[in-house]
């Protein structure tokens, strides 16, 4: 069947507002919009101003009160505890309503912020939806971040309440959340009024009197009292959530997502981009702490009336490299969405794909990969072992959904390995040189998106319109800067090659090397430092810290290295995967003092590099090569 992609993309280009107004018919609105798009509000305009709606109503109630009441909405599958918990849409609604009543009782009102710091348990999803129900703004913080990172987010979002759990589970260890939560609240200048704590049997915790409420007890009381909490009408332009993502400094960016445009974009994507029908089982193997979890574990599948899977486990080791195939076959998954790193991990442990035939994958149709560049070798391995199309798609926390892909629902286009496909409706993607001039097909440059961004993208950063403007809009007037470098070929396919800023991608997780440098610089023996992302066969990239010690430091360098690793783990969290520190005598710099991070990265990766013309002292690069060699890194 011929793809409808070109026809649909052209129809969007001809009439963007008409296109999104048509897509918006799939959503229940309490009040229609005054305009589809208002170019004069917000830093670049706002979608569906004046409209009133509720995301929880569209994701839960309209299914629970209609034909899908008895259909499974959510399956929690924990590879750690072997537990399976299943919720129909009616049951999901009951859980969400009860928790919404508890939030209300704790004083949470429309517009208040609630931080959710939880492992991959259904209650994390209930908490997101309960906030949406009462018009509160949730901010989920990934469990792998340390107390200090949580504190930074508390200070920025100023939550009235935090919903958390006694523990999370990682392979071979239970992670005590309570001390992390307590420390974060102690570090933070803003103090939340209270916490709701889910006690998990693997490790319970002492509740703090006067501050903490027991999740299960309070929800049970709300259910026993048959509390009713209707979905509160909010403006389409009101924030649904804030999700912090790495910027170039230690201060993360609070990406704001609105209610109306977000629903329209996600609902459209499920059928047209992902080719999934209501009632089918969709699985995003990510974490609710990341944008993929927000969009494709929680909101998109539920808005579309699918069954979504919440998987607590890893692709390997829980218990083996067949874990993903087990989940697919057990729950009848039709589409899986994960990061290429998960497949590299599986391939590393089961290169011949020997686990695959042990499972019934007959209902499985498509594999979607995103979060980092999908290397052709991994894509081909997955295609061959699973005998399904493998779709690489490119997006960012900021966009909340794919910017480009091979649109399965509209009809697949020919595959080009190494390319995350073609721009989706809503995205006019261009490649500009550093001076802002368009480049010819096939030429590498800055990947930008012509404004306005489509519905579902961030309208701004939380309480930071100026930072939003400076970070994304200022450099290329009229365009959104993605901070990715890449090119578009003669057939209109995009190739995303690298970030143009200090962001690195570790196992599909976006991390700031600048933030790590800020932490290292706090070590009393460190004079100067630079962190770069170096190639890693499984995680894509891992951070490597180069450290210059203060003159006169007589301590054992190995001890300083160990302390530096611990410091980053304590401040940023284990998710940073910061394990390598190389002590060097001096950092390579340009004559104007800029650290030559890109050259250091090339040396560490054993790639060819040329001596930068502006380098202050060329001998430093040899010193770095030598220091890396002693650590077994580089060519
Ligand atoms: N709470 C506490 N700690 C966490 C955590 C959480 N929620 N999530 C991860 N961590 C810890 C891990 O235990 C690990 O700690 P360690 O250094 O002591 O081993 C560290 O953070 C790094 O975790 P992770 O990135 O998950 O690496 P891993 O080596 O444990 O597993 C993969 C590697 C590839 C299997 C895993 O990253 C993966 O499945 N990634 C693909 C899916 C994905 O998450 N994509 C995100 C965007 S789509
Ligand atoms: P995040 O905000 O965590 O989703 O990270 C976004 C960044 O990840 C992008 O700016 C890219 O650098 C990278 N990325 C995501 N998906 C892809 C992809 N399919 N191909 C290449 N890079 C990707």
Automatic annotation (TrEMBL):
Chain ranges of the AMP-binding enzyme C-terminal domain: 516-594
Domain of life, per lineage: Bacteria
CDD domains in alphabetical order: PrpE
Annotated Gene Ontology cellular component terms: intracellular organelle lumen
Domain AMP-dependent synthetase/ligase residues, every copy: 78-450
Residue ranges constituting the Acetyl-coenzyme A synthetase N-terminal domain according to the UniProt record: 5-59
Entry keyword set: Ligase
PROSITE patterns (UniProt xref): AMP_BINDING
Pfam families: ACAS_N, AMP-binding, AMP-binding_C
A GO molecular function held by the record: propionate-CoA ligase activity
Matching PANTHER family: ACYL-COA SYNTHETASE, ACYL-COA SYNTHETASE SHORT-CHAIN FAMILY MEMBER 3, MITOCHONDRIAL
Family: Belongs to the ATP-dependent AMP-binding enzyme family.
Protein known as: AMP-dependent synthetase and ligase
Native species: Mesorhizobium alhagi CCNWXJ12-2
